[in-house]
Here is the input.
Amino acid sequence: MSTATKGKLLIIDDEDRLRKLLARILQLEGFEVLEAAIAKEGLRRLEHDTIDVIISDVKLPDINGIELIKTIKAGYPATEIIVLTAYGTINDGVTAIKNGAFDYITKGDDNEKIIPLVNKAMDKAILQHRVLDLENKLNVKFGFDRIIGTSTAITVAIKLAQRVAPTDTTVLILGETGTGKEVFAEAIHQASPRKLKPFVAINCSAFSKELLESELFGHKAGSFTGAIKDKKGLFEEANGGTIFLDEIGELDHDLQAKLLRVLESQQFIKIGDTKPTQVSVRILAATNRNLQDEASKEKFRSDLFYRLSVFQITLPAIRDRREDIGLLADYFIRFYAAKVNKQITGYTPDFLEKLEAYNWPGNVRELKNVMERAVILCDGGKVDASLLPYEFEAASAGTNSGATSEFDLALVEKHHIQHVINHTHGNRAEAARLLNIGVATLYRKLKEYGMD
Here is the structure.
């Protein structure tokens, strides 16, 4: 964006007298004005300056003005172009607009026509530059740049996601708890044509069947006790955008049938309604369960599984990409150090050694929690191994001697909980039943061990 009060203009015209006169008029209106006599000079200006509006003659000595518009709009879509035409060449102006020009004006028109037209083009260009700035910030915050790692395993997953992102294809993201499935879903949305529309995420295991149906599809007033007014569901909230259904394997069979209809027709019926609601929503889903196995046992609808799994991406566990642990640790140190305003310069070799020796049942989410704790405890300088929880010492000792970790009660409990959750394919209610503890107790322990 230009620093001038009203924006930055570039005039491209080989008629020196007309160009300088127009430049002077626009400078008096408060615009910053650059000049170029030929198209190539104008393109060089664009490489070094952020130009809001270009006023260009349609007849230039080196490049046809109509072709110049195509070139500029391809490389600088937020820049608006006003075309100058001679009398008798109005068709050039019309063609220019079809090629992306903002408008055209004939040479010799008085300033009363030029200045309002430039102001309108400037308003549009400045708004478009703001939108591009916002998109760039969103891409950094939610895009693929947010995914840390250079290992083959994570690189393969990123490349698959980047290939499918520009399409409307349904994607099933597979991986253990804490591997970053929602981060991938957000990145896919952000790299899609739907990126300016809503991204809505919901964890299907966090609600009862009745409440989840209302959350997803909405309801009409009076459809059940407590339904005092109409409610939009998340599919309606996500209209035009993307909905991410996490832990899709926990979805009740009746809701699976309703979701299948959305996938097939982009329609659903709200609770208590009699007519369908039409939406345009891309569906991304995730699970840590083996849905194909669940479908073969009739625990999950096979027709829904095949519709969801048109394109599958499997995210690797940290133990399958240990070479990324240092990069992730460094990122989280810088993030949390900035958050708590501490001067921390990295980590010691023994700190990284213990991170790499650990098995990480909670994956990236657990690593993130461990790094936040270490930064909080660190007084400055480098984060060292003394700031890690005890189980890391036990894991490291177990790696070296094979004699210590198996006797650590907390570590044994943590690994047993993870084993049971894996056995139930991520069904935490079933895991709590097998562990003979309450669901609330299980969630407390998962949080305590960084596995939530």
